[in-house]
């Protein structure tokens, strides 16, 4: 099933699971100290989430708390 065949709920679930896995890996591998997890985790998860959403919904506009507004919406 392609991303375009998935419901919004299915896309949201798969994106959330991918972001959770990324954050878990950051913690497990010790890639960042506790103090760094927030900013680094936010930034890395945001990039992943935006990439996955753009793949799944290329025609949708995205507004993210972690990114500057591109003004396209």
Strand content: under 5%
SS-derived structural category: mainly alpha
Low-confidence stretches: none
The overall strand count is 0
Give the termini distance in whole angstroms.
28 Å
| Overall mean confidence score, pLDDT | 87
Number of helices: 2
Biggest β-sheet strands, sense, barrel = none
What is the percent of helical residues?
A: 55-70%
* N-to-C order of helices and strands: HH
Report the C-alpha radius of gyration, rounded. Answer: 14 Å
- Morphology: flat
Topology (SSEs and partners):
Elements lengths: L7 H21 L5 H23 L17
Written overview of the protein:
- This protein is 60% helix and 0% strand.
- With 73 residues, it is mainly alpha-helical.
- The chain has a domain at 7-56.
């Amino acid at each position: 099933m392609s991303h375009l065949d998935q419901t919004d709920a299915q896309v949201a679930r798969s994106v959330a699971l991918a972001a959770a896995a990324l954050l878990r890996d950051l913690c497990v591998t010790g890639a960042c100290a506790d103090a760094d997890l927030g900013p680094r985790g936010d930034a890395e998860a945001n990039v992943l989430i935006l990439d996955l959403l753009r793949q799944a919904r290329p025609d949708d506009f995205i507004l993210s708390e972690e990114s500057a507004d591109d003004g396209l919406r």
